[in-house]
């Protein structure tokens, strides 16, 4: 009894297999079944000629493809040219050559410029600047000291010591009596005598010297820095660096700094007559 059942099941399985894999051409198109789901995909790049199928109908789609070598087996070989790290800061670069077959071959590395010593040169220049600054500082301190120079006296013909030079840093500046801080201008004398004096006037940004006059001295001004507006009597002038002007004695004048930077003038006061009628 058991043998008959097994034989009957085998016949049914064989009939089902023949019907699915090799359908009857006489049947209508509606009865055809799509057998592509049971057959392997031949469009795959793998070799399916030696694929093995399991004996069960349920496991028909389980296949064991033939192992292949190369990239299809999951192994990839890089075609990148392996070279030591390039020193790009020295302009090193790869040199290539095209062979007769059309392939490109790396023939070596072109060396760039020699070792970069810009850092050492920069340190050396910095050291020289520091030494020069120290030297200038020492010379400046020496110039601040009161020094005398031997000059010849025209009356006696002998050499006598005289303070003929004075540094700008040693000048003592004075400001006009005002409550404004900083003051609009300040004044200093480099030297003075009974008949003549010489000094500097420094104006603050947009500083102004109010109208005034000197009853005994004529004043000669020269602009060293900045741009100034000068009013002499009732006429206005605009002076720049290098310009000069004279204010006769007894004539009122005023000076105004027109810029947002400091201005510097030289002033020379003298008593000698400026006009022929003085």
UniProtKB/TrEMBL annotation:
Quote the protein name from its UniProt record: CENP-C_C domain-containing protein
Q: Which residues form the Mif2/CENP-C cupin domain?
A: 185-259
List the PANTHER family: CENTROMERE PROTEIN C (PTHR16684)
Q: Which GO terms describe its cellular component?
A: kinetochore; nucleus
Q: Which species?
A: Trichonephila clavata
Keywords assigned: DNA-binding, Nucleus
Which top-rank group of organisms is this from?
A: Eukaryota
A GO MF label: centromeric DNA binding
């Amino acid at each position: 009894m058991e043998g008959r059942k097994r034989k009957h099941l085998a016949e049914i399985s064989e009939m089902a297999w023949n019907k699915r894999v090799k359908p009857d051409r006489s049947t209508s198109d509606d009865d055809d079944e799509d057998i592509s789901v049971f057959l392997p995909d031949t469009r795959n790049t793998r070799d399916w000629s030696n694929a093995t199928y399991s004996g069960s109908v349920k496991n028909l789609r389980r296949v064991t493809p033939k192992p292949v070598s190369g990239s299809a087996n999951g192994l990839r070989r890089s075609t990148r040219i392996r070279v030591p790290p390039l020193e790009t800061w020295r302009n090193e670069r790869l040199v290539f050559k095209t062979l007769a077959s059309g392939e490109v071959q790396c023939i070596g590395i072109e060396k760039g410029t020699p070792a970069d010593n810009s850092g050492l040169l920069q340190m050396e220049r910095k050291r020289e600047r520091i030494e020069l600054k120290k030297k200038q500082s020492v010379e400046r301190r020496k110039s601040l000291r009161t020094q005398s120079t031997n000059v010849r006296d025209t009356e006696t013909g002998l050499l006598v010591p005289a303070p003929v030079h004075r540094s700008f840093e040693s000048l003592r500046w004075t400001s006009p009596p005002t409550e404004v801080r900083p003051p609009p201008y300040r004044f200093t004398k480099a030297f003075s005598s009974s008949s003549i004096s010489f000094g500097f006037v420094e104006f603050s940004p947009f500083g102004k010297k109010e109208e005034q006059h000197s009853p005994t001295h004529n004043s000669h001004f020269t602009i060293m820095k900045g741009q100034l507006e000068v009013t002499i009597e009732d006429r206005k002038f605009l002076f720049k660096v290098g310009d000069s002007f004279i204010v006769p004695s007894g004539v009122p004048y005023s000076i105004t700094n027109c810029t947002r930077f400091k201005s510097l003038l030289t002033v020379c006061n003298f008593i000698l007559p400026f006009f022929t009628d003085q």
